[in-house]
Structures are given as C-alpha cells and as structure tokens.
Amino acid sequence: MNQSIRKLTEISIKWKLTLWSACLMILLFFSFNVIQYFFIHHWLINQEKEAIQTKMDEVLAYLNAANHAQNNFDLEGAKDFLDKINQESQMIRIINQNEQVLFTTSEDFPEDNIIPKNVKHAELIELKSDDEPLLLLRSPFKNSDFSGSIEIGHSIEKSDELMKYFLIVMITGGIGAIGLSLLGGRLLSHQLLKPVNNMVDTMRKIKRNGLQERVPIGAHHDEITDLGMMFNDLMDDVERSFNQQKQFIEDASHELKTPLTIIHGHLSLIKRWGKEDPKVLERSIGLSLREVDRLINLVAELLELSKAEEHPADTILHEAINPNEVIDRVLENFKLIHSDFDIRTYQHADEHILIEMPSRYVEQILLIVLDNAVKFSYKDKLIEVKTAVENQFFLIEIKDYGIGIPKQDLPFVLNRFYRVDKARTRKSGGSGLGLSIAKRLVENFGGKVYLESSEEKWTKVTIKLLIKT
Ligand code: ATP
Ligand code: MG
Asked: Where do the DSSP E strands lie in 122-183?
C-alpha cells in the first residue's frame, strides 16, 4: 500500500498532468451526461403521461356527451368509438363497479396481466408486465345507470428503448472521451514541458561539455522562458567568474614562477661554484633575498586583493570619517619618507565632509597611488594633490609629472598584474596589483577610479568617494 502511494508520488510531471487533465475531462463528461440522461428520461415520461391523460379526457368527453344525448349508458356506441381511437401498444377498458371488464379494446398490449380495478379517484401508475414498462391511467366514470372506471394502458417500451440507446451512446462516448482526454493530456503536457526538458538537456550538456552551453529561448514569452533567461544569465555570471578565477590563477602562478626561477638559478649557482667563491655566494644570496622579499610582498598583496574582492555587503555600515584628515595624515608621513619630492596640496573641498569608509582603506588607496607617482617619476619630482566635491562624490586627484602611461595601455592599468613595460617595472619591484586593489576597495564603497595620462609628461589619478548624506 505504502509502496504504491510512493510510486504514485514519484510519477513524472508529464504523467501527473496527463492524468489530472484526463480525470477532469472524465468528471466533466460524466456529470454532464448523467444530468442529460435524467433530464431526457424525465421529459419523455412526462410526454407519455400527458398523451395518456389527453386520451382519457377524450374518452370521458365522448362518454359524457353520448350519455347526455341518449340519457343512458350506450355501451355499443362507446365500443365503436373506443375501437376507433385506440392505437398501437395501447389498451382501453371499461370496468363496472364489481370490477368486471365490460369491454376491452387492445392492440399489442399485455392486458391479461393487469387486474381490473374500480377507482374513486383518478390514478396514474407505472408498472411492468413481462418486462415491458407500462403506464396505466384509471379514472372513475359515473352516470344515471352506470358506475365504474375507465382504464387506459400504454406501453412506454419505445421511450425505454430510446433511453437504452442513449445510454449506450453515452457510455461509448465516455470511453472515447477518456481515450481522447488521455491523448490530449499527453500532448498538452508534452507541449508545456518542452522548455523544461530543454533546460534539463542543457544542464546535462553543461555537465558534459562545459559552461558555455545555454538554454535555447523561443520567440514566445512566458514564465518558463523567463526561467530559461534567468538560468542563462546565471550561467553567464558563473562562466565569467569561473574565467576570472582561471585567469587569476594563471596570472598569479606566472608571477610567482619568475622569482622562484630566479631563486632556483642562484641556489644552483651557489651549489656549483658559490661554496668556494665567496663573491658569487654573497651576490647570489643578496639577489635571492631580494626575490624572496618580492615573493613575500606579492603574497601579501594577493591577500589584500582577495580581501578587497569580498562582497560589498560585507563592508557596509561603517563609521563615517573625514577624508581630509586622513589625507593630511598620509601626506605628512609621505613627505618625511620622500623628502626629495615636492608634494603640493590644494584642498578645495569642504572641511567637514564625511564619507562612510574605514580610514585604513582610504590610507591604503592613497599610498598605492602616491607610491606609483613616486615610482614612475624621474626628472620632475613634483606631486599635486587636489580635493573637490562633485555632486554626491568627494574627489581626490593625484597628479605626477613622471613617465606617464601610453594611450594604448591606459584602459588596462587597473587590471590585476598589468604593468606597462614589464621589464621596466620589474626593476622598480612592482607586481601590477596596486591599482587593482585600489579600484576594488573604492568600488566596494560605491566610488570610482579614473586614470588620465600624457606619455612622458604626466599622470593623473582621480578617486571618487561617496559622500555620506
Ligand atoms: P604594485 O603597485 O603592485 O607594487 P605596480 O605599481 O606595477 O605594482 P600598479 O600600481 O597596479 O602596479 O600599476 C600598474 C601599472 O600602471 C604600473 O606597472 C605602471 O606601468 C602603470 N602606472 C601606474 N601608475 C603610474 C604613474 N603614476 N605613472 C606612470 N605609470 C603608472
Ligand atoms: Mg603600484
């Protein structure tokens, strides 16, 4: 029992839809037919009853009229009349008060099985004789020298047969309807579930062939195409982030490989010659240590980047800070370290501006940009820092007059690991992560970073931070 219930709940949606629609159709068809059957049956019997009543009225009217004319009961005259008006499958009898049959006219009617009865009030009964359905109407009749009853019997076999045919038609129709509704339900469910099956197929293909497969979207718009579109969007995101991760791992391993290869080279050198030659030993250890430092920095920066890439929701609702204070603090320290640089500030922004961002992030962003400004300047050691307010943003512009960035590289310098001239930057020890960390941090808090540059002349980095309202 339990197993069969489980089997029922496990059947596919296709079959559920088929069965449900078939059941509904059967129920509708069945109830409609039952109502129709009873209605027609009732109507037919009523017709028969009305017909028998009309006949009785006719007979009584004749007998009354005849009696009036002759002043006594003219049985012979009545016989002629009753013979004439009798029809097929019908009987008319005259019964006296002792319940004896005085006269019968009958045509194809089983009158012998019906016991004559004298009645005081008219009565209409339905009965069966030899399996034949009959209607019998008795009505009292009285005049000066006669008292008895008139009986009219009528077979309703024809109506009954009609109803039987009707029932057969209904049952065959019903069976046909079950078949058709099962077929219809199957077609309907197939049509409805086609997009769902497409989706399942696509998922199978994704499992087999990779993330590039998408659900085909038809021209018609409905809830299921919405679902397909949502699924495709989701897959776009998944594919994009998967590719980003892949790219990141490739870039990171490439970046890690370079210092490791250099260290490996120096260690081999030491193994071969260095033990005897203190000069080689000294030089190789020094260079290896530099590469190890680079590795340490790289790993630290990768950690920073992954922290910066956290979901923005994790970093909301921070205490508001005054960015001007942070800028002052950072520049004071920076000037001490880079005393050879002329750092000029132009603070145009309102003193009391507040932004919602932890101050250590603002410091980090400023240091990343200032570090680049120093690293990529050689002749003109001048850095200008300007602040301004533009709509709902607090702007920090940092401009240096160094080597600049070629136009074709400008769109890419914010990407991870991107360096303009890899050989040139390697000497300055950069790994190409600074600006991408700054960009992530700023964007996580609703801000933006822009870069403008003129090669060999200047570079301007604009940081837009959202002002607290
Ligand atoms: P890291 O900051 O990770 O130590 P990096 O400075 O090379 O390394 P980013 O700060 O991301 O990396 O900068 C990316 C590249 O953009 C740099 O390698 C450099 O080529 C170019 N760049 C950035 N700032 C400037 C600038 N002020 N002047 C000229 N080129 C710049
Ligand atoms: Mg940098």
From this structure: 123-129, 132-143, 146-155
Mutate to test the pocket of ligand 1, among 256, 372, 428 (most ligand atoms within 8 A of CB): 372
Residue 96's closest CA among 84, 104, 88, 108? Answer: 104
Domain 223-310 belongs to what architecture?
Orthogonal Bundle (1.10)
Paired residues of 398 in beta bridges: 385, 461
Token readout for 217 is 């979207």
Q: What's the maximum distance between 2 C-alpha atoms anywhere in the chain?
A: 166
In this structure, of 15-24, 131-140, 310-319, 379-388, the range with the lowest mean pLDDT score is 310-319
Letter for the amino acid at 228?
Answer: G
State pTM to two decimals: 0.54
Would you state the pLDDT for residue 423?
A: 47
Ligand 1 centre to CA of 131 (Å) is 109
Compute the C-alpha angle 122/123/128, nearest 5°. Answer: 150
Q: What is the mean pLDDT of residues 136-154?
A: 90
For the chain, what are the domain ranges?
A: 9-163, 223-310, 317-466
- Quick one: fold of 317-466? Heat Shock Protein 90 (3.30.565)
Between the CA of 318 and the centroid of ligand 2 the distance, in Å, is: 27
Pocket of ligand 1 (CB under 6 A): 301, 368, 372-373, 376, 400, 402-405, 413, 418-420, 425, 430-436, 459
- As given in the structure block, the two tokens for residue 194 are 């086609």
Alpha-carbon span 416 to 253, nearest angstrom: 13
Nearest CA to ligand 1 atom 12: 432
CB atoms within 10 A of CB 293: 12
Ligand nearest to the CA of 449: 1
Task: Indicate which atom in ligand 1 lies nearest the CA of residue 437.
Answer: 11
CB 124 within 8 A of CB 137: yes
Q: Collapse the DSSP code of 404 into the 3-class scheme (helix H, G, I; strand E, B; otherwise coil) and give the result.
A: coil
How far apart, in whole angstroms, are the C-alpha atoms of residue 80 and residue 75? 9
Q: Is 228 exposed, middle or buried (0-12, 13-18, 19+ CB in 10 A)?
A: buried
CATH number 3.40.50.1100 is the correct assignment for the domain at 9-163? no
